[in-house]
User: Fold this.
Amino acid sequence: MSKNAEALAAEIRARAGAEPPKLGLILGSGLGHLAEAVEGVAIPYADLPGFPHAGVSGHNPKLVIGRLEGTRVAVFGGRAHYYESGRADAMRLPLEVLKALGADTLIATNAAGSLHPEMPTGELMLLSDHINFSGLNPLIGEPTDARFVPMTAAYDPALRAALKAAATAEGIGLHEGVYAWYSGPSFETPAEIRAIRTLGADAVGMSTVPEVILARFLGLRVAALSTITNLAAGLGTEAISHEHTKAMAPLGAAKLERLLRRHLQKME
Ligand code: HPA
Assistant:
C-alpha cells in the first residue's frame, strides 16, 4: 500500500468519518447517478491528488462515502480507463485507498456490448469470468511477488450467489457470462467481435478487467456487473457510439440500482 493511499485515506476519514466502508462500488458509463443515491459526504476527485480526472463524459468524478440501504459504502462516481492515459494501472491509487479505508469488497459496474441477441440492450450480466483481450496488465512493473495474482476464482463465488439471490428477490433477470476487455477507445470491428465470441466471451467493454486484477492483488473480494447498452459490432442494426452507450445505460441502470439496494440490505 502506498504512503499516498494511507495519507488520502486519512484525509477522507477526516472529512467523511472514520467508520470503514464495507464495500466499494465503481460506477460505469451512464451509471453515475447512483452516486447521488448515497447519503453521505461527496469528495470531488479533484480534491484527491492522484485520483483520475475522469475525463469521460457520462461519468461523475467524485467519491461518495456514506450509507446505501444501511450499509456503509464508498462509491466511485467515475473511473479511469486505460485508453485515456495508456496506463493500465490508472485505478490503482483509488483501489488502494478503498483498501486503506477498510473495505473488503469491490463491486464494479460497466456498460458493455452484448455478443448474444438473447441478451439485448437493457439487460444485466453478472461477470463469471473475463478474457483479457488487450494483453495489458496493471501489475506490469510491480516489483513484489504479490504480482503473481491467482485469477482462478477472481469473481467471488459467494458474492455472485448473493447478487443472483438479490436479483431473484427483485424479479430482475440476471445473465451470467464472460466479459472481454478491449482496450478502446475505438469500438471493435465485426471481425474482432466474431473472434471474441469464438474465444468464449459473452460481452465486451473497455474497462473493469484492470480494476479486477488490481482488486484481487489488494485482497478485495470482487464482483462485477454489466449493463448491456448495445449488441456488439456486426450483430445488430444499432449504430454503436458513446452517445448511444450513454443513452441506453439508464435502461439497465434502474434495475442495477434495485439489485444493488437489495443486496446491500442483506449485508451487515
Ligand atoms: N464495445 C465496447 N465497449 C462498450 C460497448 C461495445 O460494444 N458498449 C458499451 N461499451
Remarks:
- The pocket of hypoxanthine is lined by residues 111-113, 182, 187-188, 204-206, 229-230, 232, 240, 245 (CB under 6 Å).
